[in-house]
Design goal:
Strand order of the largest sheet: 11-12-13-14-15
Number of helices: 16
Largest sheet: 5 strands, mixed
Helix content: 25-40%
Number of strands: 26
Low-confidence stretches: none
Distance between the termini: 53 Å
Strand content: 25-35%
Shape: globular
Mean pLDDT: 92
Structural class: alpha/beta
Length: 499
């Protein structure tokens, strides 16, 4: 049984030594090169005395950064990725939380590194990538490793603005990669187009299946996502056949009528998640790619990536919401009501995850860990942790789950409980609206709607009056030239709150 995520790398490197594993605009790494660099980095870290501890990685998104991830894991340590796209204050909070003794830095990042406030050892990637291998030492490290050893810490935003470091182990990642790969039919011929930054867990969908199957991943330049035609041209040039993107990245292509000019020629699998896919935009993708398989994915970082999957049919009615589906094999979703009893079918409850997917907790943060990783209230016989997501859903008669809202995304306005997502779904269906988002100003008790589209605010308000009850009408409607997005490609609601 595979109990170390890197057990996939050497067999693949032996079978496909010259095949490209990861590539960007500057670099290509074959599987043999990747394996060699991995062992060089691991040997260097071992010789410097690092073991079972966090290693900071401060590099630009690149194949070399992924090689550094693997090298850290091979050394028996766990990686903590940061990036120059992150605000400096956030990076310093991450360093303060993890207390890493070492940081692997790309040479092109050395000038920035001095600003981080890091006082440990700085190790330059280019200086260690060819370190002669100490095979005996690496074999001993591998022999001592167990599947619950951590392999990474990635940080999410806390409700107080303080980032929380989610710590995941070999077993949860292996289980996730296996379930996802089986569901989406990854194989040696899969060519991934990576959208997300490497400091988010979303990149797991490409980073680990690539070495498992001998697939290829292209790291798409971030700036391409501002130019839909250029982005689709890139997909075609690289013959990318599989993408696992946030919804905003997909709607950015369809909303601006890109398919009138160019269509992705090779896509066979489109998986999306993190946000609700507007039906109007989904239909545009379906029409442009009638032979492509579409999947909705759902899952929190604390659940090791994605936990649920739904294979989408060809059509949906205007008032339908795409379900998040059913949990992966070996994962259970429990819908709990506020009184900690199980929600009945059709009844709203909080999504709670049970199983191997549940990560180890928040690094160096026992207080926040104990709030979200709790004893399963349905089991009083023995210790069993579940993760409370804070997401609300209902179960349909066919067993598929439908996402309702975040617990903190529900508001009480004019005496009514309102789901902001319901307003967004309604507005997204209006012709002339390309993309929209709602936020709530709790101080002034006002609903604010922001949108990008062809119609003026007054026209949109009149359209909204036709479908929304008065108490759900936004108090402020503002047209934007472009919607703000986070580094991960999601709508940046924090920025909208300040506008």
């Amino acid at each position: 049984m595979i109990d170390n995520i890197l057990d996939y790398l050497k067999p693949t490197a032996k079978r496909l030594p010259d095949k490209v594993a990861f590539a960007d605009e500057k670099t290509e790494l074959t599987f043999l090169e990747l394996d060699q660099i991995t062992d060089s980095i691991a040997t260097c870290l071992h010789q410097k005395g690092y073991y079972k501890e966090p290693i900071l990685i401060y590099m630009k998104k690149s194949p070399e950064e992924i090689a550094s991830f693997y090298g850290v894991i091979r050394s028996g340590c766990f990686y903590v990725p940061i990036d120059d796209e992150m605000p400096l204050a956030r990076i310093r909070l991450i360093i303060e939380n993890c207390h890493p003794r070492a940081c692997i830095v790309g040479r092109d990042m050395l000038s920035n590194e001095k600003e981080l406030g890091f006082d440990g050892e700085v190790i330059v990637y280019e200086d260690i990538m060819n370190t002669p291998h100490d095979e005996d030492a690496l074999d001993l490290i591998h022999e001592r490793a167990i599947d619950t050893d951590p392999i990474y810490i990635v940080f999410t935003s806390g409700s107080t603005g303080v980032p929380k470091g989610v710590c995941a182990c070999h077993r949860s990642v292996i289980d996730y990669v296996n379930q996802l790969s089986d569901s989406l039919h990854f194989d040696q011929d899969t060519v991934f187009g990576n959208q997300t930054p490497l400091y988010f867990d979303a990149c797991l969908k490409e980073v680990y299946p690539t070495i498992m199957f001998g697939a290829t991943t292209y790291l798409i330049p971030h700036e391409y996502f501002s130019f839909p035609v250029k982005l689709v041209t890139y997909l075609n040039e690289k013959k990318i056949n599989t993408i696992c993107w946030v919804v905003s990245a997909l709607t950015m292509i369809s909303a601006f009528n890109t398919f009138n000019d160019i269509v992705p020629q090779y896509l066979r699998t489109v998986a999306f998640g993190s946000e609700v896919f507007p039906i109007k935009q989904y239909r545009k993708w379906r029409k442009a790619l009638p032979n492509t398989e579409f999947y909705n994915l759902y899952g929190p970082t604390e659940g090791t990536g994605m936990s649920c999957i739904y294979h989408c049919p060809e059509t949906f009615e205007d008032d339908e919401v795409i379900p998040i589906g059913k949990p992966f094999h070996n994962t259970e979703v429990i819908l709990l009501k506020e009184d900690n009893t199980r929600a009945a079918q059709g009844e709203e409850g909080e999504i709670c995850l049970r199983g191997t997917c549940v990560t180890l907790g928040y690094y160096n943060n026992p207080e926040k860990t104990s709030e979200s990783y709790t004893q399963n209230p349905l089991n009083t016989a023995y210790p069993e942790l579940i993760y409370r997501t804070g997401d609300l859903a209902i179960e349909r008669e066919d067993g598929n789950l439908v996402f309702v809202s975040r617990k903190d995304y529900q508001i009480k306005h004019m005496g009514h409980r309102i789901e902001l997502g319901e307003i967004e779904a309604d507005v997204s269906a209006i012709d002339g609206v390309k993309i929209c988002a709602c936020v709530y100003d709790r101080v002034k008790s006002k609903i604010k709607l922001f949108y990008v589209g062809d119609m003026e605010p007054g026209e949109l308000i009149e359209e909204m009056k036709k479908s929304l009850p008065r108490y759900m009408l936004p108090n402020r409607t503002k047209k934007l030239e472009e919607m703000p997005f986070t580094a991960n490609g999601k709508i940046d609601r924090k920025t909208l709150q300040t506008m």
